[in-house]
Amino acid sequence: MNVISTQRLCKSYGRTEALRDLDLEVRPGEVYGLLGPNGAGKTTTLRLLVDVIRPTRGGIALFGSPMSPRLRGRIGYLPGDLVLYDRLTGAEYLGFCGALRDRPDPGEATRLAKRLDLDLGRRTDELSKGNRQKLGIVQAFAHRPDLAILDEPTSGLDPLAQREFHTYLREYVDDGGTVLFSSHVLSEVEHVADRVGILLDGRLVVEDAVASLKANAVRELTFAFAEEVAAATFSGVPGVREAVQVSGTEVRCRVSGAVGELVRTAARFPLVNVTSHEPDLEDIFVHYTEGLSDVR
Hints:
Layout: E1 4-13, E2 16-22, E3 25-26, E4 31-35, H1 42-49, E5 57-62, H2 69-72, E6 75-78, H3 90-99, H4 106-115, H5 129-141, E7 147-151, H6 159-174, E8 178-182, H7 186-192, E9 195-200, E10 203-209, H8 210-216, E11 219-225, E12 240-245, E13 250-255, H9 260-266, E14 271-277, H10 281-295
Parallel strand pairs: 4-8, 4-9, 6-7, 7-8
Antiparallel strand pairs: 1-2, 1-3, 1-5, 9-10, 11-13, 11-14, 12-13
Helix pairs in contact: 4-5
């Protein structure tokens, strides 16, 4: 049973479609990263899942059931537009949040705040952006939820706090939790996510494991030869998308999938060196967003 399952989920604001026919599945015990440019539908998706807004049409199931007050207690939510009560200290704010839940765990909140170097004795209006974000993270995990839904969780965090949060996230999942989060920080998604989905114009255009996306992405190999070799030699090789003459003795190939046949072809000539540019998640993201622009 999936922790999150949506069926043709749509959200419209007047004539504007913010989300279109989203079929999303998040499995137990995984970290799922949701990517997309501004306005792609990421925040709309997360708000729909926690019942802050209602869908125009389509279905949502959490833990196999429709949203209910009982299910809300199993979810930790960090909104992208976090609002705090400025006259409360961090501890008072967490106490207030805990009183609204069926299973508060003050000990967990204290432990996580310590790990993130957050002073719970200070009033929230005295906190920096980064510390306000830390407090939002702590409240999302304070009751040890079964599912954490996080909108840009590391926004404003310094590198040390980000690293500690990523470590905590993996511990949380190893202990049985499930995470769905959105992010603009592609390196973060690549580092912590098991699977990733890319939203563009309200549609889920690609979804796969990070490793699979990278393995099937277009990469660049540059071959340096002892003598001139024509780029056309590689144009018909399986997997080669493009072959360009960089100089008389260098050829750059853009290739997807297995590169064995390309390397064997290059080895027929006096090969001096091979340089490979392995794609990262940013390359993949740019590839899909540019591809959509080309279609337009």
